Amino acid sequence: MIINDQKLHMITKALDNSLRIKILYYLQENVESNVSNLMHYFATSQPNISRHLKILADANLVFSRKDGQERIYQLSDNHVSQLLDTLKTHIND
User: Fold this and answer.
1) Please, which residues have CB within 8 angstroms of residue 60's CB and are 6 or more apart in sequence?
2) pTM for this one?
3) Which of 11, 54, 56, 82 has the smallest set of CB atoms within 10 Å of its CB?
4) What span, in angstroms and rounded, lies between the C-alpha atoms of 77 and 60?
C-alpha cells in the first residue's frame, strides 16, 4: 500500500491538538458552524479558532462555504465522521 506522506503529515498534524479534535466533534454533532459560534462554545479568540480551522482545512478534514459576510464550516466528508467515531470508541474503551 502506498501512502501519500504529505497528506499523512497534514492529517496527523491536524489531529495533534485536542482543541482541533473537539472542533471536529462539534462540527460532527452540529453539522456546520461559523467562527463566532465556535469562539463562544470553546471560549477562545477569533484568531485562535481561525488558525485551527485553517489547519483542519489544509488537512482536508473540514471545508467552508461563504454565506454573506461569514464562512460556514463543516466536516469534509463521511470519512472524517467515521474517523471520529473510531477515535471516540478508543477513547471510551
Assistant:
1) 7, 10, 11, 76
2) 0.93
3) 82
4) 9
